[in-house]
Sequence to fold (272 residues):
Amino acid sequence: MKRILLFLPPVLLGVTLLILVSCNTNQPQTGSSKGQIWERHLGAVANAPLHPGEAQKELNLKVDLIPEGKYGRRLSREMTPRYITIHSTQNPTGDAHAHAKALNRGALRGGVCGYLCWHFTVQGDTVVQHLPTSERGEHADFDGPGNRYSIGIEMCEHKGNDQLATMERTAKLTASLMYHHQIPIENVRAHYHWPREGYNPPNKNCPHFLLENGQPGTTWRWFVGRVQRHHQRLIAFDEAQGGQKPRSEGARRRQQMAQRLWRTVSEFVRLG
Fold:
């Protein structure tokens, strides 16, 4: 009996250590579990080339532009986009169409021109466009590069909206805009990236459900990775069309094809 009692404490100590090790092993995984869970629900991005025109159709784009010369478009401000900025509306009641109505009647005040405006609002089943991508918006950092050079995309959060479908549609829209405007993946930024002068904190916790503790982390990297995989499908289509031609020639032809396709699609959906 004494031998058993002498043996018991080390056993309990060993079990305790195993439990602690197990807990410590699982903790890092929970930090990225949100993106992992979403990836399982969405499924892997198809590993096959995708025609850019088909990618456009998948967006279910509705064009409802702010009236030219009014509100967010009252100033003529051309833009050649270099970045894409991702936001979330933090509005539990307004869908994409409600935001379009608000922008079209100048209900959202602020920014350099006096009215807030951005290019696209995305919800689970559609994308609504408010500004041409060739015009500057008011959605990021007042007179900073986030407004002067980036396409603004807002993700809806209203009750009943499918958040996963919204993120996926946003990822596809972002990939399409990257393709047509020759924007690299490193220039896809969260609203957080653009500091707002005079605000405390200057970097907004936006899009909040893609950030960790108010900053880009594992979940944001998951989202950007998914955007990249959708973009690679569009590039793979160009490469398949180009065959085994030299890389420099292929790059030139891809750019020409993108420009031609963009002009053609713009005649119908007015994305340009």
Remarks:
- Residues 1-31, 244-248 have pLDDT under 50 and may be disordered.
- Residues 46-234 form a domain with the Lysozyme-like fold (CATH 3.40.80.10).
- DSSP finds eight helices and eight strands in the chain.
- The longest strand covers residues 83-88.
